[in-house]
Amino acid sequence: MSNIIPEIREPNEFPYCFWHPVVASEETYRKLAKRYPQLRYLVGRACAVAGYTDLYQELDLLPEVSIAEEARESDVLGAAIYRQIMSSKTKYAVLDDYTRTINEHSPRVAHLNGDTCVRSYLDAKQEHNKAPCRNPYNNWEDHYDKRYFDITEDMCVDLHRSELEWPPEVLDLLFTPLPADLPTARKDPLILSAAHYGDIDRYARLKRPEMVEYELECVVRGIYHNTMFAKWWSLQARRLKQSEAHAIGSAVEARFIMNNDLSRVKVWSEDFVPPEMIWYPTRAHWKTYEELARLSPKRGGLARAAAHACIVCDYQHSFDKIEFVPSAEMLGEARQSHNPYYLQKIERMAEEQQLDLDGDLAIMIERDDDLPTVRRLFEPSTTCIYNPIHMGSLDWEIPDIYGSVGPQFSAIELKVCAPRDVQAKHDNVGILDDYQSPDHIRK
After folding, report:
1. Which one, of 302, 240, 299, lies nearest residue 275 by Cα?
2. Nearest of 371, 196, 376, 193 to residue 280 by alpha carbon
3. Is 92 helix (H, G, I), strand (E, B) or coil?
């Protein structure tokens, strides 16, 4: 980038990105491609950023999707290169920004799919953490957010943190079929939405090799609400990381149980932690909860979950058949039930076993812990339209009934539903103000 071409001797010395934060001259890139032909496609990418159309033509490259996305991001500078690539019937993926590798000899046919670390991504910074660098055994990378893109190999560390807004076209893509070539490189909102609603086709196409922020929580919600999504994830065990396996595995088992399938219970490993919430959004048959508790006598938590489900579903006969130790969550559920039998029995059991469930419940409420009771069935809504939409627009304050705090899409759903003229005149204020006005009432 300083117009100096170094002598590179080792393979690991070759840089992947040499166009950010500044670009070199066209002649420097021309000499670079001549001296190191293995960098031709990266030089072509730099041409897309800088608008060096003549040099790009000289390189005689395959129509490459990362170069196309970079050229589109560069707007006027890269317009000619973008048009040339998009005019080709077949496009290829030679560059892989996730692994920082170049596959020039056997590239795959591809479409524009938002898998390029365009320059705007590199402008999203994370703040420098001063604390942990003195211990020589500490890995500095452990103290920063891991980026699925790190083409500059500095994890975008800076003095201040900055965020990317969602591009305007993302909102329309949330409710329309995806085109063959995705019109935006910033597809994280589309990934979260596909996971949240359990849309297998969209999710399988859009997902990245590494989960993006909050994707796991959205996946769990999607599994609970979509059996087909749960079945698909049950076949993905090999690609799951250990940090993801518990949450996803537990959600899959919960969904299968609610579908009255207990065939997998017998093969659960000893270290598998079974799901706690197995009664929403679908109530299983009463026999399922009885059999679940019988099949897993050593798992007291599972019997308790089955008994909890019986309170929600008002399966009193099954409730009496299950042997369990009552919990504060069950006490809270019983107090909300229209059938007083459950509260009477739990209070009697707590007294006999000398359990302070009231005290435990009070502590949980004081700490604002999540109580997965029937009153939490309803997902929240909002009356505010946010402009522009970004990750901060999602509601993070309300505990999630699926076992973790995840993004609520109510703000996105309202914005999608509201007419464009209503969206335009609202900026983080309540939409209901319109409906309360005299003009609206007359209409």
Report:
1. 302
2. 376
3. strand
What mean pLDDT do residues 343-370 have?
85
* Residue length of the chain: 443
What are the residues whose beta carbons fall under 8 Å from the beta carbon of 10, sequence distance 6 or more?
none
What residues are paired with 158 via a beta bridge? 127
CB 382 within 8 A of CB 411: yes
The pair of structure tokens assigned to 197 is: 């609603």
Report the share of the chain in percent with pLDDT over 70. Answer: 86
Q: DSSP states of 293-334 as a string?
A: HHH-TT-HHHHHHHHHHHHHHT-HHHHHH------HHHHHHH
d(CA 339, CA 77): 70
Quote the strand ranges of 59-154, DSSP E: 92-93, 95-96, 101-102, 108-109, 126-127
Burial environment of residue 227 by CB neighbours within 10 A (0 to 12, 13 to 18, 19 or more): middle
Least confident of 276-280, 356-360, 435-439: 435-439
This prediction has a pTM of 0.89
DSSP state of 24: -
Cα 376 from Cα 68, distance rounded (Å): 46
CA distances from 64 to 85, 93, 106, 223 (A): 7, 6, 13, 35
